[in-house]
Every structure is written in C-alpha cells, then in structure tokens.
Specification:
Elements lengths: L2 E5 L9 E7 L6 E2 L4 E6 L4 E5 L4 E5 L6 E3 L3 E6 L2 H6 L12 E3 L5 E3 L9 H9 L18 H13 L10 H14 L12 H16 L2 E9 L1 H18 L6 H14 L6 E3 L3 E3 L6 E3 L1 E3 L2 E3 L2 E2 L7 H16 L5 H4 L4 E5 L18 E5 L2 E8 L2 E15 L5 H16 L2 H5 L2
Parallel strand pairs: 14-18, 18-19
Antiparallel strand pairs: 1-8, 2-4, 2-7, 3-6, 4-5, 6-8, 9-10, 11-21, 12-13, 14-17, 15-16, 19-21, 20-21
Helix pairs in contact: 2-3, 7-8, 7-10
Length: about 425
C-alpha cells in the first residue's frame, strides 16, 4: 500500500500553527491531483490545501483543531487511484451525473458541488439555511457567499403562507407559552477564532508596549464636499470609481507624513528609529470575522482615483477572505474610519510596529463661527493616537493640524503647497 503524507504548508515565517477550518471532502473519499482537500485559518490569512496525488484521503484532524505548520494533516492511499481512475461500467443517461462548469462545458460532478465555502457556511449558520436548499454557482457547483445572499433575498420576496384562523383558547395558550419563554435565561460558549485571538493579543501588546497618547482636532469638510458634488459624475465616468472621502484623507496624510518623518517611522530593536521615504497606508476594513488592515503601498505616487481603486480592491479581497500575506504585511501608517458605524469620537489604538494611527469619525452639521457669523458646516472630529517615545506632542499636534489645513483647502493637495 502506497501512503503519501500531506503536510500543512508554510504561509509565512511568523505563522507556526493554524486552525483547520473546514474539510472539502470526507474521510475515505477518492480525490484527484489538485482537488481541494481542506481550508485553514491562520492569524493573518486563510488558505486552501490541495491534493498532491490521486487516491483515497484520510484526515488526522477535525475541523476546529489547531495544527502545526509542517505537521501531517492527512494521508492519501495512492493504490486506490487505480480503482478510482478505472473506466466505469456503462451507465444509462439517467444514471450519469454531470455539472456545467463556468465555461458551459459538462464535466463529471465533483466534491465541490453543493459544498459551501467558509464564508457561506457562516452565513448559512446565522440564517439557519441548509446547503440542500441552495444551488451553487461557484466552480464545479460550489456554494458561494453570494449564492447564500441571493437565496436569502429570494426568501424575502416570497410572500408568507396565508395565516390560519385558530380558536381563541389556542391563541391564549400560545401567548402564555411565549410569555413564559421570555423568562428563560441561557448562556452559550463559542471558541474564539484565530483572527479574533490575534486581534486581542495585538491590541493588548499595543497598550502595554507603547507610550500611547491621543490628540484631537476637527475639520471643516465644506470644500471637499463641494468638490465631490461638482466632479462626482465626471470622476466616476472617467475612472470607473466613485470619489469618496478616504482618498482625500489618504492624500492629505501622505503629504503630512513626508513632512513629519517621525510619524511615519518605527522603533527598531529599541535602540534605533527606522525612517521611511515612502508611505504605505494600512486601511482598516471590517469583515464578518473581525477587523483587518490591508495595505495600500506607495501612496505618495498615487492620484485620487488610484487610491480609490486600491481601497476598493483590498476591501473586496478582505470581505471575500482573499487577502494574501503580502496584502497585510508592512504598512507605515494606519487610517481607520469609525464614522461609517456612527462613531462621533474615539481613541484608536496604534497598529504596531507603526507609531501612529489616524481616526476618522462621523460628519455632523454643526454651527460654527466663521468671520464673525454663525454658519452651519459639515464637521468631523479627527483623532491621532501616537507613540510618545519617538513622537513629541508638538510634532503630533502639528501633523494633525497640517492634515486639517490640507482637507479644508484641498487645492493645496493638487498644487503641492
């Protein structure tokens, strides 16, 4: 019997163990070379494991188990490959199962048909939906997150069955049961995901190992909102992307970071300060699994449309669990926007080894004194959390004031003044 050991692959030097999140095939299943075996979740990225040979698979771990990188996750009996690949006996048309792939050609049905992706599994569990109810449109019939969303939307549009008239006594009994059910108390425990545990660990480390301080200011977004209103349609028509606020903030932060290099620096080995003549901005993105910070690199070379396109790309990859290790490694500065959730003011936590993070918040119309007159202006509070070990208070305040000036007079961004 020829047994091939399949090991957990390495996805980065800093990742030593991962969680087996889901199995694509069950024990004893015959697989072909390059068939999907399982999926892993690390503290940084999710990744798939495919078969190196053809044969019958036997897993040595269960979904939810933590396994070491380099350890054996399953074995494949290659002697079974001969049986698996042997020509099957003639079958009637009704007995042969086929599936149409994305190119429209018929292929033999595979394990992927009706198998949900990890994102789809979570969404199905949250909405009490069975895989049997959903038709997969992914590769080889795999159920994607979009398939689940489409199914849920179709259920909303389907009218509920007509209500039946029940006797009054039955109605009273039901009401009594519901009333008593409201007095029940229940607790539940759910294992933290590896990403959630990593977020918790890094946040505590940031608080314990940095001299973090936050300074605040506010910015009048009248000019930027007027620019967006005037050029929104022509901008989108030319570049194929909407003109949002984040590109202005990234551009303003980049200009300020090049003027205040300490805010764009790291502490290296406790004895050295590492400066950067480029700006790689980490943009905080909220996903169903937690907060991730994919990176937009060399922002100092980008125009507004380049930034908008880059933000859309990394945000889409983050929400579809498609981020690679390269997408989240590095970054010299972070911008987070709690305003999209309604936050008026907050103190963001530094993303180590970076030394500063800019927090955006909700835009609110407030009365402001302008040239001796009270006017209603769209205002946003800004927060800059910074590591006081290498950034002095004067630098931090001046940096935030510079961002405020650039946002309130956005023509300075384009004129380079």
């Amino acid at each position: 019997m020829a047994i091939v050991e399949i090991k957990v692959p390495s996805v980065g030097e800093s990742i030593t163990d991962v969680t087996l999140s889901s199995l694509a095939v069950s024990n004893g299943t015959a697989v072909k070379m390059d068939d999907l075996l399982c999926e892993f979740e690390s503290d940084k990225v999710n990744f798939e494991l495919r078969s190196e040979v053809a044969g019958t698979v036997q897993f040595l771990a269960n979904p939810g188990d933590d396994v070491k990188v380099g350890s054996v996750i399953c074995t494949i009996n290659t002697d079974a490959a001969t049986t698996t690949t042997a020509p099957p006996p003639a079958a009637s048309t009704e007995q042969k199962t086929t599936v149409v792939n994305q190119q429209g050609t018929n292929t033999d049905a595979s394990y992927a048909e009706g198998h949900p992706s990890p994102a789809a599994v979570k969404l199905m569990a949250e909405n009490n939906v069975s895989a049997a109810d959903i038709k997969g449109t992914g590769v080889d019939g795999r159920i994607t997150k979009e398939d689940v969303l489409a199914f849920l939307e179709s259920k909303k549009q389907t009218p509920p069955p007509p209500a039946t008239t029940a006797p009054a006594a039955s109605t009273q009994t039901t009401a009594s049961v519901e009333k008593n059910a409201g007095n029940k108390r229940a607790d539940s425990r759910e294992k933290m995901t590896r990403l959630r545990k990593t977020i918790a660990k890094r946040l505590v480390e940031a608080k314990n190992h940095t001299a973090m301080l936050t300074t605040f200011n506010e910015v009048d977004l009248t000019e930027i909102m007027q620019l967006r209103k005037t050029y929104k349609e022509s901008f989108e028509k030319k570049h194929g992307i909407g003109l949002g606020f984040m590109s202005f903030f990234c551009k303003a932060a980049t200009t300020a970071l090049l003027e205040f290099p300490s805010v764009n620096a790291f502490i290296a080995d406790e004895d050295f300060i590492e400066y950067h003549d480029y700006v790689d901005i980490s943009v905080a993105v909220s996903t169903d699994k937690g907060l991730v910070v994919p990176i937009i690199r060399d922002v100092q070379t980008m125009q507004l449309h380049d930034i908008e396109l880059a933000i859309k790309e990394v945000a889409t990859k983050a929400r579809n669990n498609q981020l690679s290790l390269q997408d989240i490694t590095g970054g010299t500065f972070t911008i987070t926007n709690g305003g999209v959730f309604g936050s008026l003011l907050s103190t963001p936590i530094i993303n180590p080894p970076q030394t500063a993070i800019l927090g955006m918040h909700s835009i609110q119309e407030r009365p402001m004194a302008i040239a001796g007159e009270v006017k209603i202006r769209p205002m946003m509070y800004l927060a800059l959390s910074y590591d006081h070990r290498i950034i002095d208070g004067k630098e931090a305040v001046s940096f935030l004031v510079r961002i405020k000036q650039l946002l309130e007079e956005p023509m300075k961004l384009f004129l380079g003044i």
